């Protein structure tokens, strides 16, 4: 099990693992469970229960404190929203690697919100400006130009747009690398006095749909 440091966005993963392997283990006493719990906490999480000595009663109290401090749904939602806010913006549309990282981080937080039964309607208006401020102006403009009027699932539409755009740009980069390799092969063959022959072929299927 990984150590829990107090990041509320990671609480559910931690608790589900701990509950399944230790908390519900009938072969362990509460004091033993408390020992295991403390060994898996660090940072703010450990500090929250640092005043408790090992005992059955204190184990129950510690669980209550941790759940109230890090496991409340409103706190977890706020944590995911803060992670979206802290994502590094990408200003250069040619930086495909950074765009992919931005997209993956956004999707992780959005899917986590969905797992908490947070509906599009309840957080869509908050997410919309956050994500649009993170992407290059060219993509922002392209999305607004092509989006459907009064789209019901705006966030879904935005995420799918970014997915297609990034997939396309990654595929285009692969095509460019293929051309570079082919040119290098040709130059090497000509230098060695060998008839140029294509010996590398990369086929890329573009994943975007205009």
UniProtKB/TrEMBL annotation:
Pfam families membership: DUF1759
Matching InterPro entries: DUF1759
PANTHER family: PROTEIN CBG08539 (PTHR22954:SF3), RETROVIRAL PROTEASE-RELATED (PTHR22954)
UniProt name for this protein: Uncharacterized protein
Species in which this protein is naturally found: Araneus ventricosus
């Amino acid at each position: 099990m990984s150590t829990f440091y107090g990041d509320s966005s990671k609480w559910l993963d931690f608790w589900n693992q701990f509950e399944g392997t230790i908390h519900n283990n009938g072969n362990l006493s509460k004091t033993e469970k408390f020992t295991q719990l403390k060994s898996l906490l660090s940072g703010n999480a450990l500090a929250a229960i640092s005043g408790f000595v090992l005992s059955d009663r204190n184990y129950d109290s510690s669980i209550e404190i941790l759940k109230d401090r890090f496991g409340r749904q409103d706190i977890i939602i706020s944590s995911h929203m803060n992670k979206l806010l802290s994502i590094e913006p990408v200003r250069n549309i040619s930086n495909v690697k950074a765009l992919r990282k931005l997209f993956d981080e956004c999707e992780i937080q959005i899917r986590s919100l969905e797992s908490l039964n947070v509906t599009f309607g309840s957080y869509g208006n908050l997410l919309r400006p956050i994500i649009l401020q993170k992407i290059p102006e060219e993509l922002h403009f392209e999305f607004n130009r092509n989006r459907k009027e009064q789209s019901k699932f705006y966030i879904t539409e935005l995420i799918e747009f970014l997915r297609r755009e990034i997939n396309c740009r990654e595929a285009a980069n692969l095509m460019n690398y293929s051309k570079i390799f082919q040119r290098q092969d040709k130059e090497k063959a000509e230098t060695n006095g060998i008839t140029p022959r294509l010996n590398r072929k990369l086929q890329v299927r573009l994943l975007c749909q205009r």
